[in-house]
Amino acid sequence: MPQQNIVRQDGARSTLLSVIKNGSASTLQVASGVKAAMTDVMKTVVDNVRVKQFAYQPIFVKAAVSGVVRESDNQYRIGAPKLVWN
């Protein structure tokens, strides 16, 4: 039996489109491409169709990268030992 889900937004039945990237794809590039594609899609739908963004992963990716860079910079400033892999 195929998987079936019911999606509701503000109590109304809705449709959810999940975009899942593969391991070698960039989350930031995929999200940018989806956002650009949705701009084109919205030009083709009727006026009573509402589209809302549910989750935007690049926010978390950028925050994680920023945290790694910040911690790396802090470790460098306090003279912590450096680990190098060859």
* Poorly predicted residue ranges: none
Major sheet strand order: 1-2
Overall, the morphology is elongated
Number of DSSP helical runs: 2
Helix content: 40-55%
Write down the domain tally. Answer: 1
Main structural class: mainly alpha
Can you summarize the main beta sheet? Answer: 2 strands, antiparallel
Helix/strand order:
EEHH
Total beta strand runs? 2
Give the integer mean of the pLDDT values: 77
Distance between the termini: 50 Å
Oligomer: single chain
Tell me the strand percentage band: 5-15%
Radius of gyration: 20 Å
Could you explain how this protein is built, in words?
The structure is a single chain. With 86 residues, the protein is mainly alpha-helical. It has one domain (7-78). Helices cover 43% and strands 7% of the residues. It has two helices and two strands. The protein has helices at 27-42, 58-78, and strands spanning 7-9, 12-14. Strands 1-2 form a two-stranded antiparallel sheet. Strand 1 (7-9) and strand 2 (12-14) form a beta hairpin. It is elongated and about 60 Å long. The termini are far apart.
Give a concise summary:
With 86 residues, the protein is mostly helical. The chain is 43% helix and 7% strand.
Features:
86 residues; mainly alpha; two-stranded antiparallel sheet; elongated
